[in-house]
Amino acid sequence: MHIAIAGNIGSGKTTLTRLLSKHFGWTPHFEDVDTNPYLHSFYEDMQRWSFNLQVYFLNSRFRQIVEIRESGKTVVQDRTIYEDAYIFAPNLHYMNLMTTRDFENYISLFELMSSFIKPPDLLIYLRASVPTLVNQIQKRGREYEEAIRLDYLKKLNERYETWIGNYHLGKLLIFEVDDINIEENPADLAMIIEKVNAQLHGLF
Questions:
Q1: What ranges do the domains of the chain cover?
Q2: Engineering a disulfide at 132: which of 61, 93, 128, 153 sits with its beta carbon 3.0 to 4.6 angstroms away?
Q3: pTM of the entire predicted model
Q4: Which sequence positions are flagged as catalytic?
Q5: pLDDT averaged over consecutive 10-residue blocks of the chain (204 residues)?
């Protein structure tokens, strides 16, 4: 089974991936941030490195999905291949940080790859306001994220809402991050676990 967690930068995907994998005994698949060779360069010069970064993520997540399906295990994945294609790449193109030529090439690659994969059995979307995102980004203190602009996060949020509003590939759960604290409040995590159980196993 494949459970995927979607959400903007700083919404808490990695934390929830870790906590759910620990509770259910699932195999976690984290986003490749520490070994990504383009991330630092991208935040220093988005226009120069946007296409390279998005192709790297596309390749990385496609490989992850193939591994998930071949493993036969229940896996919880930090971010999906769809977010790159429907949110991050179009946003970079819109902001003139990716050329139309590169964007069309990227989308063509995504469409080919997506024809070979199955969507997650359950998608969990973490919705968060920009102030919450900023607070959580600052808290984790990744140096290369210090340059992220508020308008960039706001635009991403708008694209997330459009994508989620039209998501019909499978089961979907939405949690309001502004109202919960899964690391410090066990009741909040218990609520999420209960709803995930209900979606996967019909335990109401």
A1: 2-201
A2: 128
A3: 0.90
A4: 78
A5: 94 94 94 80 90 93 90 93 95 95 97 94 96 86 71 92 96 94 88 93 66
